[in-house]
Amino acid sequence: MEFGNFLRILKKHRFTLILVPIFAVIITYFLVHNQPDVYSSQAKLATGIVDQTQQILGNESDPQESKVNQQFSNLIEILKSKRMLDQVSYKLIIHDLSSDKPYRKPSALLNQLNASARQHALDTYTSLYKKRQALSLFNADQNGLHKLLASMKYDDQSLLKTLLVYRVQTSDYINVQFDSEGAELSAMVVNTLCAEFVNYYTLLVKENQRKAVDFLSRLLKAKEDTLNAKMLALKQYKVKNHVLNLNEKAKSLYGQMADFETRREEVERNTHATQSAINDIDKKFDPTDRQYAEGSRIADAQKVLSTRTQLQAATDAYVQSNFDPRYKHRMDSLNGVISAQLGNLSDRYILNPLSTKKDLVDEKLTLQVQNELAKNSTGAINKELNRLNTKFDALVPHEAATQALESAITIASQEYLEILQKYNQASMVSNFSTQLRIIETAEPGTAQPSKKMLLVIISGAVSFVFCIAVLFILFFFDNSIKNAHELANRTKVPVLGYINQLKNKKIDLGAIWSNNKANGETRYLRDLIQSLRYEIETEMGENQVLLVNSIEKEAGKSFVAINLAYAYASVNKKVLVIDGNFDDPGITRFTQTSYYLEDLLPNVLDKSFVTIENKIRVIGNKGGGYSLLEIGGEQIVTDKIAALKTMFDVIIIEASALNTLNRSKEWVQFSDNILTVFEAGNNINEEYKTHIQYLKQQQGKFIGWVINLVRPENEEKS
After folding, report:
1. What pLDDT score was predicted for residue 351?
2. Smallest Cα–Cα separation from 551: which of 670, 689, 668?
3. Strand 673-679 vs strand 545-550: parallel, antiparallel, or unpaired?
4. Residue 350: its pLDDT value, please?
5. How many helices (H) and strands (E) would you count in the chain?
6. How far is the C-alpha of 710 from the C-alpha of 678, rounded, in Å?
7. Ranges assigned E (strand) in 181-266
8. Cα(54)–Cα(173) distance, rounded to whole angstroms?
9. Buried (b) or exposed (e) across 128-148, using 16+ Cβ within 10 A?
10. Closest listed residue to residue 527, CA positions, set 553, 500, 562
11. Residue 276 and residue 691: Cα distance in Å, rounded?
């Protein structure tokens, strides 16, 4: 497929490409020239979704773009919903039913209504408008009212055809546009739709806000009651268990316990220190010296022990009174007495003068007193620590209970504050008016520029392009072979020539091959046959027998064979034409010959057949669907062909089509060369490919194609 071929197809169908757009333009003109003018009206709505000047305090954050787009989509869909359009439809039909100047010319159905029917329709439409209800098509009466709306083109589907609702780029505004044949009608539809939408949306928003405030109010009251109940439970628990301030009380007890722990550690440290010192002194005493010293001081030591017992009692009282200063004074006094008594012991000369350990004995007695005091203090401190631990442990259950109650109160308080905040926000928002409002109302507009001429031009252009598209599709999917060039490319076999298609189906061969009568296309046909004859003669060389066949019948074999015979005769060749097509003996019928293969093959050739001076001889057949070898054996046919070669310069045999199988192929073994006729316009299908492969396998006998019935527009590529 080449572009040049497509251009030739366009040239061939040039009248179609001209006439079809003309008819389309004419038809379009008559369809649109009576159409009324179009009036367009627009209104603009502000939504407040992205306009910061309309935002309520505390709600100034920028919303996400996806959420904004979703909100605008919801508003646009509500505007275009059947609920809104039904309100507009009711207003339009109510006006036309009750006014002498309707927006549109009354339809046939409206004119059929009598006075009572018109009043019933008016009352029903008015009631539905006030109640914002839709017509029920299941109700016979309301179904008829819907048909009345449709007849006036006031129904929702008719309004949607010319209604345009869109967001103005990325702004806060929505445009509503309606086109109709009346300026007032367009403005009325837009203004009514916008007003009904604003009223409906406002009512919807306020109703939702009221429900939200009521719900939050009930929820806030419930949370407040819960909080009060938990606070009361905490109060009752503290009163019942005499709990004043657990944290402060626990801190006080913990401080006292820490103080006693410190004192106990100090006393234990003193006890270990004095005991270690006493042990060291004991190691330095001789047993006899120790006995003497202790025997001399028994009386004074007993006084020291008595005073020490009193000091212990004072120490216990001092610890148990939480270190009352009064007991501290008594302890200091007793310590002074003990010191004096120990001094008296040291003043006595009761030791052996030879002894050098007097000071050690005195120091030991002092350390023993201190050790006893420390041990007595440890017991008192441990007793007091046990008492404080008992009091501290008694605080733990109260602390756990109060913490649980206080935690519950904290949670309830947070819930209450959150609900309170939402309630205040909802109450504040409900007191504001809705942000949706009409900022530009629609006015009756002027007539829009007429699109009639544009439609006429578009119809012509579209029909022209459509015709070209159809022709291109036909050309693109057309795999038929139209000329010699395409046949040679598709089969890889040379094409020796072509025969043009004649306008007149009836031709006179005598006129074609008579030099003084041939003209125009018949002269051109003769030239093509002569060219074909030359190519065949060149390919055949010294060979004499040419078999002319085809793949399918009615491809023009007979026509080619007869004309080739005339072409050879015109160059003074003696030509024999054999009609070997037993299925359709067309040459026999055309020439009306009296010589038949059925007679000549079994018998000796008639001398009269050879002596005739005519340069073209014809041997026909009687038909009947026989094959060559059924009439005569292979040797007989071979001998007859050999004899005929001696009598004629060229023998042209027309065989039946190759799809007749053996009836055509039997002639191949008796021929020198094969010329196959291909009819232009045929496709090479699988059957063709099989027969072409057979021809290529005939050991060089197949010399090529001749393509028949080539149209004049395809001859350039031949």
Report:
1. 47
2. 689
3. parallel
4. 47
5. 26, 11
6. 10
7. none
8. 13
9. bbeeeebbeeeeeebeebbeb
10. 500
11. 134
pTM exceeds 0.70: no
Smallest Cα–Cα separation from 522: which of 512, 533, 530? 512
How far apart are alpha carbons 322 and 256 in whole angstroms?
9
For the record, the structure tokens of 277 come out as 């010192």
Task: Classify 278 as helix, strand or coil.
Answer: helix
Q: What pLDDT is stored for residue 294 in this prediction?
A: 52
CA distance 114 to 96: 15
Chain centre to alpha carbon of residue 244: 68
pLDDT, residue 39, reads 85
Mean pLDDT over the full length of the chain = 81
Which ranges constitute the DSSP H helices of 99-133? 108-111, 115-131
Higher pLDDT, 169 or 261: 169
Phi, psi (degrees; rounded to nearest 5) at 549: -135, -175
Distance of CA 388 to the CA centre of its chain: 76
How far apart are alpha carbons 119 and 365 in whole angstroms?
Answer: 133
Residue 121: name the closest of 95, 156, 101 by CA: 95
Q: Is the pLDDT of residue 216 over 50?
A: yes
Is the pLDDT confidence value at 291 over 60? no
- Token representation of residue 393: 């442990």
Least confident range of 59-68, 134-143, 286-295: 286-295
- CB atoms near residue 211 (< 10 Å): 11
- Name the DSSP class of 60: -
- Sheet containing 163-167, strands listed edge to edge, beginning at the edge strand earlier in sequence: 163-167, 173-180, 39-46, 437-440
Asked whether the beta carbons of 293 and 350 are under 8 A apart, the reply is yes
Q: Is the pLDDT of residue 717 over 50?
A: no
Reported as type and span, the H/E element at residue 677 is: strand 673-679
Calpha distance 155→135 (Å, rounded): 11
Q: Which of 700, 650, 702 is nearest to 676 (CA)?
A: 702
Q: Tokens at residue 711, please?
A: 């149209």
Secondary structure class of 354 (helix, strand, coil): coil
**Under 8 Å between Cβ of 95 and 182:** no
Laid out side by side, the sheet with 673-679 consists of 495-500, 702-710, 673-679, 545-550, 650-655, 575-580, 616-619
Dist CA 36 CA 447 (whole Å): 10
Q: Comparing 378-387, 584-593, 639-648, 658-667, which segment has the lowest mean pLDDT?
A: 378-387
**91-128, pLDDT tens digit by residue?**
999 999 988 888 888 989 988 989 899 999 999 999 99
